[in-house]
Amino acid sequence: MTRLHTTALLVALFLGCNNGSGGRALQSLPQPDLSQVSEPQLLAALQKARQVIALTPDSAAAWVYLGNLYFVHGWEEEAIPYYQRAAKTDSKEFRWLYYLGRALHEKEPARAAEVLDRALALEAKYPPAYIYCAYAHRNLGRLDKARHYFEQALELDPKNYFALLGLGQLALTARQFEVARQILQKALALDPKRGELHSALSQVALALGQDQAASRHAQAARQYIKTRNMPDPLWQRAVQVGATPYWFAKNGEYYLSQGNFAAALNELAKLDSEGEKNPLYWCNYGTALLGVKRTEEAIVALERALQLAHVPGGESRIAPRDMLRLYSTLGQAQLQAGDLNKAEHFMQEALQLAPNMVQAVLNMALIYNYQGRLDEAIAFLQNTASAKEHPQISRLLDELLRQRLKKIDQ
């Protein structure tokens, strides 16, 4: 009852922020339906943002802040007029145009392309703006324009995964299969764990008559996630306004994808874990703990995830790729804790799901070696299909072979 009363009060305050020129301007723009919102934190944030606009209607940053709140909490259409208002209030600021173009690029690519062109005229050195401009032109079928913007992004950032992927996909569309293969291989060297990349490589291999490679990449496409977070500091600043448990979890996932374990842990710790039944939360929390070397706590969280993931009948409550990550991370945690038997068990489970998973292969070989099973470690790596294609596996195999020769010499 207290929660409901608080929610009703906040809605009333929210709707009451309409005094002055800022308030009248707010009334003229679309508002989301808050009748089903039950998160006091979110309602309070919205109310405060509207109060700031009512007091400072000439502040573009205030309009963008409320637009960000709307956008990241699912009111994407309602957010766009607020970005437009910010861009109109301060037409010389790159950030406001960038937010507007980014918000438009999927549903209104023609407008997005025009807005992002204006943004890039103000700031020509922000690669994500070129990437989203390329996406907009690609959605319009303007493939030459899209190629130009991907190339511009790559010129600014020669290791830009998204520019390489985009160029490779364009070459694939143009049936330039060898060109596509070369470009996509460069992207693969930057990030081998992306489903959309392996999917494109599978299509290229099929077109080139490389059936085994096509099958291998198709398997990897199913194994790895289909999308990837683009490093985008401006947009990350926008999503930080998230004021619900969902967004704390999303922010935690984002930081994990970037390898920033301390920041991920900070976001995930904001959630009330008391009674939390989502195994993915515990998997992410355990991964973040392991990343900051809190190994024992990580094992507790990961084992909790495993317990919640299993349901009667042998099924799983999470997707196979998440189960794979859970087994692999648990194996790594047990390896760091020194329990080689448990580490071997969990790595075996991971390898059952993905026999060529590079990190699991490496860890399993290390476990064999630490157990004094050097010959098994060598044979295991030699029999791994991915051994010749991954430098880390090849280096470890060479090191283990040197160890065996040293023992023979002794």
- The DSSP helix count reads 23
Please state the average pLDDT score. Answer: 87
The largest sheet has its strands arranged as 1-2
- Shape-level CATH architecture of one domain: Alpha Horseshoe
What is the 3D shape? globular
Structural class: mainly alpha
Q: What is the radius of gyration computed over CA atoms, rounded to a whole number of angstroms?
A: 25 Å
Terminal Cα span: 77 Å
Query: SSE string, helix = H, strand = E?
Result: HHHHHHHHHHHHHHHHHHEEHHHHH
Structure overview:
This protein has 410 residues and is an all-alpha fold. Among the domains are: 259-354, Tetratricopeptide repeat domain (Serine Threonine Protein Phosphatase 5, Tetratricopeptide repeat, Alpha Horseshoe), CATH 1.25.40.10; 360-410, no CATH class. 73% of the residues lie in helices and 1% in strands. It has helices at residues 2-15, 20-27, 40-55, 60-72, 76-89, 94-104, 109-122, 127-139, 143-156, 161-173, 177-190, 195-207, 211-223, 233-239, 245-257, 261-268, 279-291, 295-309, 320-337, 340-353, 358-370, 374-382, 391-409; strands spanning 310-311, 315-316. It has a two-stranded antiparallel sheet. Helix 16 crosses helix 17 (279-291) and helix 17 (279-291) packs parallel to helix 19. It is globular and about 85 Å long. The termini are far apart. Mean pLDDT is 87; it is low at 1-17.
